[in-house]
């Protein structure tokens, strides 16, 4: 069954002013929706970043993929590698994660789309193609952010301002109340570390027994990271990317009382071995968008199992195609032992490209879709609407730092360590 057509549609959806170590989210998040059409008309969906340079790479790959058998993922990968430019940028992560493999980032949405087609052809869910679901619902974590009340010059967004512990606790209460999450992550690296420690303690007081995580995206130096890790002993289930680089993480890991997790210093296969050799991280946050799709993420899970690393899952701002793919992958990964990250609560319900209904949160978990393939359908009107928004919004690269400088502090310097 060969690939006949590939369509790549950049889209934009509204995003609140969420603060992080490198700046603040712009009013719109960018994504690309990939539709692969097989020769019998069966279509498969993938989702990826929407940055212009990434889009250009996806378009080059799309040309090269016509005629490939949808079952032949190695051939997909070979053709993607063959046409790849070796320029930098277009990572879609605001400069926070830059070491991932360009070939794997480009391959990912095409591989997911081909798995969607494969599942539709044989009438089985993608989780079956990945070895079978070992859980029928996938737990996700609440994802708290420091944030402004609204974008400068715009209306408040409904979530309100969150710049201190009380407001973060209120944000958590609402998010847990609406989605039922049973784990909580705070995006840190925004306030001085002692304020973030106070926020985590406030969350621990309000949600006793609920697993907590803090992720400053490597904004701290080694000394600060060791100190904060010590202060939060017994409070965090893991500390995510407290400092930058494998060497720094290894130094922190030697003294930290909790496991260290990463989606920054180990984001590609060639980075695993050096990290394992110095025991720099104990939890890998997988992300099929940069590890090369669902099949290669299963390979990553095997590597983690072999080397005694735990596995959790990272998220950026995303739509329903990605949530479906993440859910199938997590359902078919036995050694994924933590609730996965998701930015889902920050997206307006109506801002999506999949037909509503299949994807829903129940008690903090998403039931694994059981229909053929990913189990979600493309809403073509919604796709057209979000594409129009992409055209109109004018954004072409995620640029949290540039936005923060424009609206808040022209001298803002995100280069770590900030503390
Ligand atoms: O969207 C954000 O601000 C996040 O900080 C995201 O870009 C990170 O990639 C991510 O959530 C993380 O865990 O590092
Ligand atoms: Mg992270």
TrEMBL record:
Family matches, as Gene3D superfamilies: Enolase-like C-terminal domain, Enolase-like, N-terminal domain
Pathway annotation: Carbohydrate acid metabolism; D-glucarate degradation; 2,5-dioxopentanoate from D-glucarate: step 1/2
Residue numbers annotated as active site: 187, 314
Enzyme class: lyase
Keyword Disulfide bond carried by entry: no
Domain Mandelate racemase/muconate lactonizing enzyme C-terminal: from-to ranges: 165-259
EC identifiers of the protein: 4.2.1.40
Highest taxon, organism lineage: Bacteria
Pfam hit, one: MR_MLE_C
GO-annotated molecular function: glucarate dehydratase activity; metal ion binding
Keyword Lyase recorded: yes
Catalytic activity of the protein: D-glucarate = 5-dehydro-4-deoxy-D-glucarate + H2O
Keywords recorded for this protein, A-Z: Lyase, Magnesium, Metal-binding
Cofactor: Mg(2+)
Family as reported in the entry's similarity comment: Belongs to the mandelate racemase/muconate lactonizing enzyme family. GlucD subfamily.
Listed PANTHER family: D-GALACTONATE DEHYDRATASE-RELATED (PTHR48080), GLUCARATE DEHYDRATASE (PTHR48080:SF4)
Protein name: glucarate dehydratase
Species, as recorded: Actinophytocola oryzae
């Amino acid at each position: 069954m060969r690939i006949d057509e590939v369509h790549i549609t950049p889209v934009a959806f509204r995003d609140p002013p969420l603060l992080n170590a490198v700046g603040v989210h712009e009013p719109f998040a960018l994504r690309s929706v990939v539709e692969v059409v097989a020769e019998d008309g069966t279509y498969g969906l993938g989702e990826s970043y929407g940055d212009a340079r990434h889009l250009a790479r996806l378009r080059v790959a799309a040309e090269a993929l016509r005629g490939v058998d949808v079952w032949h993922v190695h051939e997909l990968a070979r053709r993607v590698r063959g046409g790849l430019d070796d320029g930098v940028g277009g990572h879609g992560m605001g400069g926070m994660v830059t070491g991932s493999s360009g070939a794997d980032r480009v391959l990912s949405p095409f591989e997911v789309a081909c798995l969607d087609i494969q599942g539709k052809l044989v009438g089985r869910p993608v989780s079956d193609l990945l070895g079978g679901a070992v859980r029928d619902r996938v737990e996700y974590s609440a994802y708290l952010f420091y944030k402004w009340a609204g974008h400068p010059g715009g209306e408040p967004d409904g979530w309100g301002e969150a710049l201190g512990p009380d407001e973060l606790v209120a944000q958590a209460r609402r998010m847990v109340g609406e989605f039922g999450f049973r784990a909580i992550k705070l995006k840190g690296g925004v306030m001085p570390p002692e304020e973030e420690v106070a926020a985590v303690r406030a969350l621990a007081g309000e949600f006793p027994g609920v697993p907590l995580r803090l992720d400053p995206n490597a904004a701290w130096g080694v000394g600060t990271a060791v100190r904060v890790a010590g202060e939060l002993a017994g409070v965090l289930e893991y500390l995510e990317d407290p400092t930058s680089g494998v060497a720094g993480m290894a130094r922190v890991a030697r003294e930290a009382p909790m496991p260290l997790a990463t989606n920054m210093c180990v984001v590609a296969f060639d980075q695993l071995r050096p990290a394992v050799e110095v025991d720099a991280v104990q939890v890998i946050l997988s992300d099929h968008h940069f590890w090369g799709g669902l099949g290669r993420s299963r390979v990553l899970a095997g590597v983690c199992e072999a080397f005694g690393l735990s596995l959790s899952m990272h998220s950026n701002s995303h739509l329903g195609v990605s949530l479906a793919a993440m859910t199938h992958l997590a359902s078919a990964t036995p050694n994924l032992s933590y609730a996965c990250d998701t930015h889902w609560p920050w997206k307006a319900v109506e801002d999506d490209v999949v037909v509503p209904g299949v994807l829903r949160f129940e008690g903090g978990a998403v039931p694994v879709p059981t229909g053929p393939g990913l189990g979600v359908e493309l809403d073509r009107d919604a796709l057209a609407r979000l594409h129009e928004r992409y055209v109109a919004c004018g954004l072409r690269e995620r640029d949290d730092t540039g936005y923060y400088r424009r609206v808040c502090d022209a001298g803002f310097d995100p280069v770590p360590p900030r503390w």
